[in-house]
């Protein structure tokens, strides 16, 4: 890799900057930071399981904070378990469920899940489990008939995310649950809701789901904290071994500043929720269809309309390469990511774009822009003005496409 | 449990407050908080593995921060892996080493390890591993002859902490390594150094150890972040499954605010290190021997002199019960913990006090006070004045001891 200093110098810094890479990182709003501050400096820093004044105070603050945190989900705080984030939540949902329910040995997921689900399932395969992946249509939603055929007596768990984190397709979760419980009411249903929470209405009680994953950093909160909803009566075990405190699915003392930040960002997210979502969908449509209609040879990745989550813009610009796109965008102050194999040090091609049938040359030119409540109309305008120049320049350089 | 509100009201609040429960929770010094602040609000919030300006900037900040972080340990940043804290580090040290080295199936630990080591070993036992525990002397240090006899061809790993987190005994780690490598040079040695780091000199390079655990919150840093040192060439695998970013033993995006806080607290801890440790030992001795000599029927738990880590005060007040002690201390503004079974909602009796041969009635009256660089001479004086009254009142109530 080139020395970063040099890269940054050559690169310069755009006058206008627009951050639409909320999938991969976020700063926190000032109010969220202010909510964490006292827990770092002056209160709620004790172990809530310890019997002294500061322990009790911390316990009280913990209970209060957690009540606030689960309020928009309409569930009891007892059914929401704090974890270190979506990776741990998803690991527990697959492997912790298997650990606690040893009779049935088959797990069904979809082919477009987050890598923490895909890799957890592969791990279970190495432990003798049967793993099956539900195929998806070209819009990224799962094939319910395949699911129906996969469920059998042996099926322990079906894990299907609510909205895809990369291409935004919303899965028919209500139907998934109906099909599963109809065929084998013992089979548990888990959903990674981290890419859907805060972008659409979710009423867990009404859904009759068994487990669901949430993450603070996916709703502009601090990294390093998340949760797993577990319906009362569902058996699940922690994956890390150690000393439990008040929380029982992830050992160690409760991380109060992060829990408080998580609760605050949820409070902010759900203020005037309907209006916020309407606004987000409006911005998203302007950006998605604005780019699609003004830049030729462009494909929309993922579902459209009601089936697309409110914050997701993902397009493939044919004849462009992912890393070149993110760098050229960056030079223009637009921060995005790509599902291309070469667009990050991770060097992972997107299994999601492959699953929806994108050919390599289509996946290479993909660009993910995620919006948040912090993005504005002006920013969308700037992206719409800038991207045609970005794409056109790259296409000229590579000469790979006839325009 | 009694409603916490009521408890706090009855309880009142002492005019003088002394926090010596650093083992179980900590606020962070203002400088540590200030070091985290920009990473929450304005910089280094991107994914360091993503190819855009903010990703590269985050990567640079990450590299810089990590170099600072490992500086007092005299190791390369590449050999220090960031984790969510000591629980994850210890789990990886036992289970992640076993996952990556499948040939040998015996693990040796000591009987006084942190529960994350003890429970990780038990987990490996359930997977068919042979687990042996080195017994300890009454001062809490391990029996090296027993260790010598335990090591065989099958031994994958020996895990012995550097200093005990509860009774402060420092283990003869140099001898442990010599004995192990002498008998089987393939056997790996891990040490949980979380209770020793920042309280004594540690030069990992010189020690020739294979793996070592560290935790930010044990040196007044933020919770939720820690590390595992892994000597170059030693094989180990992550335990959580998911998408790796720059760090490779714990999947997920790097949590820069916490990494920055961890680095800052280490910088502060190691300023004028020798003087700080001298001062800590001085305060510790005043408190430990002050209480021991002025309160009758008191036992010192753990080793003394050079063999006791600088911050640890642990005594058993015969005829007292742990929960009553922590509550009565709390009423007087002194915040401590106890190894007694009833002193926390965890309801775990201390396996450590049992291992050093304390009878139940001795373990019940145990009180742990941990000091930090934030404690003062005046605070020690206050504790020394107050504790005789606390113990005497409790002994009168229970009438369990002849004074």
UniProtKB/TrEMBL annotation, chains A, B:
GO terms for molecular function: iron-sulfur cluster binding; metal ion binding; transferase activity. Residues 20-381 form the Aminotransferase class V domain. SUPFAM superfamilies: PLP-dependent transferases. Keywords: Iron, Iron-sulfur, Metal-binding, Pyridoxal phosphate, Transferase. Pfam families: Aminotran_5 (PF00266). InterPro entries: Aminotrans_V_dom, Cysteine_dSase, PyrdxlP-dep_Trfase, PyrdxlP-dep_Trfase_major, PyrdxlP-dep_Trfase_small. It comes from the Archaea. Gene3D superfamilies: 1.10.260.50, Aspartate Aminotransferase, domain 1, Type I PLP-dependent aspartate aminotransferase-like (Major domain). Its cofactor is pyridoxal 5'-phosphate. Belongs to the class-V pyridoxal-phosphate-dependent aminotransferase family. NifS/IscS subfamily. This is Cysteine desulfurase. It comes from Candidatus Heimdallarchaeum endolithica. The lineage of its organism: Archaea, Promethearchaeati, Candidatus Heimdallarchaeota, Candidatus Heimdallarchaeia (ex Rinke et al. 2021) (nom. nud.), Candidatus Heimdallarchaeales.
């Amino acid at each position: 890799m080139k020395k970063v200093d040099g890269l940054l110098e050559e690169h310069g810094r755009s006058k206008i900057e627009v951050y639409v890479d909320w999938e991969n990182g976020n700063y926190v709003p000032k109010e969220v930071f202010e909510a964490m501050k006292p827990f770092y400096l002056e209160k709620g820093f004790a172990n809530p399981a310890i019997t002294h004044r500061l322990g009790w105070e911390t316990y009280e603050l913990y209970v209060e904070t957690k009540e606030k945190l689960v309020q928009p989900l309409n569930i009891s705080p007892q059914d929401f378990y704090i974890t270190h984030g979506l990776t741990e939540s998803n690991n527990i949902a697959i492997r912790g469920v298997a650990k606690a329910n040893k009779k049935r040995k088959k797990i069904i997921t979809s082919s477009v899940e987050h890598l923490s689900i895909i890799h957890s399932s592969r791990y279970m395969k190495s432990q003798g489990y049967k793993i099956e992946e539900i195929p998806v249509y070209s819009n990224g939603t799962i094939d319910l008939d395949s699911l129906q055929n996969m469920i059998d007596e042996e099926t322990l768990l079906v894990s299907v995310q609510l909205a895809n984190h990369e291409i935004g397709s919303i899965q028919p979760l209500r139907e998934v649950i109906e099909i599963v419980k109809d065929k084998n009411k013992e089979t548990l249903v888990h959903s990674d809701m981290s890419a859907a929470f805060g972008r659409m209405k979710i009423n867990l009680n009404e859904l009759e789901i068994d487990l669901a994953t949430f993450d603070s950093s996916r709703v502009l909160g601090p990294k390093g904290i998340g949760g797993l909803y577990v319906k009362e009566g569902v058996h699940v075990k922690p994956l890390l071994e150690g000393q439990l405190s008040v929380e029982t699915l992830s050992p160690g003392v409760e991380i109060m500043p992060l829990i408080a930040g998580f609760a605050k960002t949820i409070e902010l997210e759900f203020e005037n929720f309907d209006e916020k979502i309407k606004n987000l969908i409006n911005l998203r449509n302007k950006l998605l269809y604005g780019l699609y209609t003004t830049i030729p040879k462009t494909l929309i990745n993922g579902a459209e309309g009601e089936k697309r989550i409110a914050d997701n813009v993902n397009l493939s610009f044919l004849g462009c390469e992912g890393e070149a796109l993110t760098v050229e965008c960056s030079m223009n102050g637009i921060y995005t990511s790509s599902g291309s194999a070469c667009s990050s040090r991770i060097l992972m091609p997107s299994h999601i774009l492959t699953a929806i049938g994108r050919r390599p040359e289509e996946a290479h030119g993909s660009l993910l822009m995620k919006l948040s409540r912090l993005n504005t109309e002006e920013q969308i305008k700037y992206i719409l003005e800038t991207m045609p120049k970005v794409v056109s320049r790259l296409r000229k350089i590579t000469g790979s496409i006839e325009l």
